[in-house]
Amino acid sequence: MSELDDVRRDLVAEQESLDAVVAAITDEQWLLSTPSRGWDVADQIGHLTFFDDTAAAAIVEPELFRASVSELFEGALEMGVDEYTLGAFRKLAPREQLAAWRGTRAALEAAAASLHDDTRIAWYGPSMGAKSFLTARLMEVWAHGTDIVDALGVTRPATDRIRHIAQLGFITRNWSYVVRGEEPPAGEVRLELVSPSGHLWTWGSEGSDDTVRGSAEEFCLVVTQRRHVDDTSLKTGELAHHWLMRAQAFAGAPSTGPEPRAA
Fold first, then answer.
1. Which DSSP state fits 235?
2. In whole angstroms, what is the distance from residue 153 CA to residue 151 CA?
3. Class of domain 3-153
4. In 23-61, where does DSSP find H-type helix?
5. Tens digits of per-residue pLDDT, 58-116?
6. Which helix (DSSP H) or strand (DSSP E) does residue 84 occupy?
7. Residue 233: helix, strand or coil by DSSP?
């Protein structure tokens, strides 16, 4: 199995895992507030629904997708991004919302089957390689799923599917500075992370200037801005901590993430 096949499979598995959570909740629970300001559980699913749909279009109808990019920006300016991307979804009943997400997921899965290792997909920023594109979708469903399980007060055991997210977090270190208009500091950072299954995952050379050590799940929570680094047990030096205070493994405008709970 290729790396692309691996992330394709893990994306579907992550979607199904979150589906099992939201399929079992009440209509009232769909309206629970989540850590994302102004968003309830339904909005989290609505966000995934909208962008799974546009991701499928980006693969199979690239010209139509490119036209939709300007529509999104214009709509966001006129209506606000939440109203543009979530407005129609918010009018649906919870069962209809779940069905809508399942439909766009199925479309994305079918579209993703056509991808090859050398495929590049237009997106809202620079184009992306197929593996990175699907990894970003997996990261999205895992991160927004984190907000949902936090709102519901339930636990979700981590799986080794987060390896894709950890790798994305590692390779976006420089991006975390560039998106803020900052110059990345000199020096290399290595990761030594313990996977959910107990294996050691590493990225970076042994001679790096600093190292992040600890739980792979906690690292992924930090780089997706679902936890503040100071609320984790991750061990870092000054250089690595400087990065993790800014870590942003996703595209878009710079985001600061949560404040430390211990503050």
1. B
2. 6
3. mainly alpha
4. 41-60
5. 999 999 999 888 888 888 888 999 999 999 999 999 999 999 999 999 999 999 999 99
6. helix 81-90
7. coil
Distance between CA 133 and CA 235 in Å, rounded?
A: 30
Question: Residue 57: is it exposed, middle or buried by C-beta count within 10 angstroms (0-12/13-18/19+)?
Answer: buried
Residues making up the chain, counted from first to last: 263
User: What CATH topology corresponds to 163-244?
Assistant: Nonspecific Lipid-transfer Protein; Chain A (3.30.1050)
Q: Rounded to the nearest 5°, which phi and psi values hold at 52?
A: -65, -35
Q: Give the Cα separation of 257 and 188 in Å (integer).
A: 23
Q: Is the pLDDT of residue 263 over 60?
A: no
Residue-range domain boundaries for the chain: 3-153, 163-244
* Rounded distance between C-alpha atoms, residue 237 and residue 193, angstroms: 15
Residues 6+ apart with CB under 8 A from 86: 43, 46, 47, 50
Complete DSSP assignment for the chain: --HHHHHHHHHHHHHHHHHHHHTTS-TTGGG-B-SSTT-BHHHHHHHHHHHHHHHHHHHH-HHHHHHHHHHHHHHHHHH-HHHHHHHHHHTS-HHHHHHHHHHHHHHHHHHHTT--TT-EE--SSS-EEHHHHHHHHHHHHHHHHHHHHHHHT------GGGHHHHHHHHHTHHHHHHTTT-PPPSS-EEEEEE-TTS-EEEES-TT-SEEEEEEHHHHHHHHTTSS-GGGS--B--HHHHHHHTT---S-SS----PPPTT-
In tens, the pLDDT along 184-243 reads 999 999 999 999 999 999 999 999 999 999 999 999 999 999 999 999 999 999 999 999
pTM for this entry: 0.95
